[in-house]
Amino acid sequence: MAPPRPRRAHNNARRTYSAGTRSAGAGQVGRGGAHSRFTVVRVLLVVLLCLAGGKLVVVQAFEAEALSQSAERQRVTPIDIPAQRGSIVDRNGTKLAFSVETRTLSVNLKRMRQDWAEFAQKNPEKGQNFETRAAAAARFIAAKLPGKTSERELLDLFHKPQDFTFLVNDIEPSIAEEITSKENFPEISKEVRSKREYPGGPLAANVVGFASWNMENPDVSKHNLNGRVGLESLRDNDLAGTPGRRLVDTAAGNDALVIPGSQRELQPATPGSDLELTLDADVQYELQRRLTDYVRKTRAKGGSAVIMDARTGEVYALANDKTFDPNDINTRTNELMNNRAVTTPFEPGSVNKIVTAAAAVEFGLTTPEAVQSVPGSLKVADHTVRDAWEHGTQNFTTTGIFAKSSNVGTLLLAQKVGEERFAEMLTRFGLGKRTGIGLPGESPGSVPPRNQWSGTTFGNLPIGQGLSMTVVQMAGMYQAIANNGLRVPPRIVEAKVNPDGTRVPEPAPEAVQVVSPQTANTVKDMLRAVTQKGKGQNSGTAPMAAVEGYQISGKTGTGQQVDPRTGGYSDSLYNITFAGMLPADNPRFVVGIRLDAPEATLPNGHSAGPLFHDVASYLAQRFQIPLSDQPAPVVPLVLS
């Protein structure tokens, strides 16, 4: 049997194999080219990844902080949080100054010009550009703030050659919100501000002063009110508080557009402290009103007055006839803001005779009833001193010398005291030194140094010439006599109230025992005769200062002013003064008054006694001061 024949498939397989071999050879060449290209790409990717990795290392290792800060600056904006400024209140809690929250409008002019120039270029058909936008904004804002600004004023601000400007200050928050809303003018920014309110206007303005936001130099204020004059300035650190700080995210390229919900507080604002004053707003009002009227009636150049607690030295009222309204910027002149009651000393005249009276009694040199032989004139060195009225040698009681205000009699007593003891007494009364009342610009007045006294110096000082004092210093001398010889320096701030409500009283002033209580009571009783109305020559110099039902002690003064043309003492310009105690038998208040050159030819133009009477009568009624147990006795002043 023959073996089987091989299958055709076998041959086909060979052919397939051959064909496959040829095909495989061609395919091998193709895969080699692709492989080369893949290798190149892979190498390039590796290089790129290396470069990127290297850059990443550089960025992360060396530039990360700088880039982070740069990115943060582009979107994070720090904003100050204004601190609530403390209030200033009187002794009864009546507000003399307080703050309310307001807004200030501002605009980045550079950005506004750029944005609207781009808008006009991209949208020429709309006919809108910076000029039309500024005009629309000015018109809209002026309509919302009638009387506060005008369209013309706003247009001028929009066209200032600067990159930035403030537009309007002290705007109600709701109105500012409407103006700067997205629907109106979002390119205009609003900033939180505080506006200082003075509900009494000129009431105690020279004491309180004023505070405002520094529109001319915003970097100084740091979004807080700044005290400019008065207590607002002197106690600015107490009142101002400490601003806080917060961060907000803003839209790229526009710090004015705050991203909602992005605010985060870094440090809260700390409110300022309140100040409690010793002033009584009602008493202050009456003193200002009555002083201003009296200055006008006597045609004086000006006047100042003070009401002081006889025991504590607390100032209930401190007034000048000329003052300003802190709410009215047009009244904020240097002349009107000057608190002359503490800044402007004057030669007081005979009110200074209290120094001689106190020294003569304290050193046992006289008594109220002792009789002094007083000539009509007295020569001191090369200067002759005379009394205000012509008289020959007369017998005065010591009380009469001061009640009649005899210059010659006063100098005779001063010579008994002696220059050294008299100089010591001036120091005890605090003359030539600031009282420390707690107000800015206080003058110490002037007293010639003892080693510079000339032959005529001791002929001037005892009668109130050749030295100067403020009306506060003058009243302080009489406070010492009213307070059993203990001088308590005046003060006008009672306490500071911190934001947490803790009350911090001002440090108590250091009291000075000027004379003994016995001497003080003796001098006080002698000075009752100044207001007595007796027969003949037994009337004092100011019976018009008397108050019915009360004993009054006081002293008049007429101090010659220096004539600016000649440099010597004037025969027509005088400081008219009065200092008095109410009531003399149990002093509650001391009142000091100074009139600057009133016309002596007019009724009351030569005396401040009537003004003291009006002020003392008001105080007696206002505080329901009990009547004196008995009227002051009428005592002999000049013996025939």
UniProtKB/TrEMBL annotation:
What does the UniProt keyword field contain?
Answer: Membrane, Transmembrane, Transmembrane helix
**What GO molecular function annotation could you give as one example from this UniProt entry?**
penicillin binding
Query: Where does the UniProt entry say this protein principally localizes?
Result: membrane
Residues in domain Penicillin-binding protein transpeptidase?
Answer: 303-615
Q: What subcellular locations does the record give?
A: Membrane
The Penicillin-binding protein dimerisation domain is annotated at 81-254
Keyword Oxidoreductase belongs to the record: no
Residue segments, region Disordered: 1-32
Q: What name goes with this protein?
A: Penicillin-binding protein 2
Native source organism of the sequence: Amycolatopsis suaedae
